């Protein structure tokens, strides 16, 4: 197979952000899509000239289909990934891999049984500066990563949302959707699995009840630690620390958070949400990035230097020097996702973000939730062993 023929399930915001980077890959041919709503189906045809089906089964049965990118709401990831694997299709599934650990395990098992690729993401663990920092740390030249800080102050909760995105039972709130990014980043930098987590969750907005903020302290198996801080309440904006470059690598207005509540008030939230995907007009996601995507402020303290992640690469703060290193910026956002997926399907190269990786990151999310609920340190083994 010289080129993989790809279908897309779920034509909303996530797909809108990632499909350009998949379609730009010469080894990937975008051949079809699926969405239960008509407008996104029409949008995919407008944008890429391909057919979008009205059912997942029809998508999977599309002649010659090799693989599927699953960008449906969290609750559908597992059933669709398992059905695809059983039909012999390779799977790229959006983060979070699934809602429950049992689902994630069943997905990994289905892929292993059918011998198909299962790749999870894209999370910001794929960002160019994260890869550069991870490579520098893994080289051993600046000692071991010991103490990582990652914090992000966003407007996540005040963007248009589907009801299930605010409902923890269905995978809603900031932990499964947002902590996933931070966990993937700090796992890459620490170069180790997480042993235990102590966390606290916050639900501050009575008009929009949901898990909206958290603090978490992670202990890694190799002795490194990470402190995560996240708020989705659209108050402070941590992009101030990243030169007012937004998450997608584009310049951002300083008033964005101050306007978040008024933008949402009195509007049809479902329609606003849908308009951010293929159903809507071309958004700024189609504009080329001027900088790397990012997920807030990240600093990894190693034994001989601190590594600061920026929107162009990293800054190494050493004993006697301060060195800026650039990470190559792709013309199209997320082309590295397409490259990693094509390498898995066509060359048999195991991806970093495989099923086992996704399962461990999901387990970290559940450890954050449980630690917040029960007010104690939670061992990852406890979360993972329960679902057997
Ligand atoms: N990696 C990223 O940068 C990123 C960004 C946004 C969303 N996401 C992920 O993408 C997924 C979807 O979130 P979103 O923000 O795009 O939501 P969305 O509401 O914008 O889009 C979801 C789309 O899925 C469709 N849909 C509903 N039920 C479906 C089903 N059973 N099968 C297929 N499609 C179905 C909806 O009609 C809608 O068009 C989530 O898992 C989310 O975490 C990832």
UniProtKB/TrEMBL annotation:
Coiled-coil portions: none
Protein name, per record: 4,5-dihydroxyphthalate dehydrogenase
The protein's GO terms of the molecular function aspect are: nucleotide binding
Q: Region Disordered: which residues?
A: 255-285
Q: Which residues form the GFO/IDH/MocA-like oxidoreductase domain?
A: 133-239
Every Gfo/Idh/MocA-like oxidoreductase N-terminal domain range: 5-121
Known Pfam families for this protein?
GFO_IDH_MocA, GFO_IDH_MocA_C3
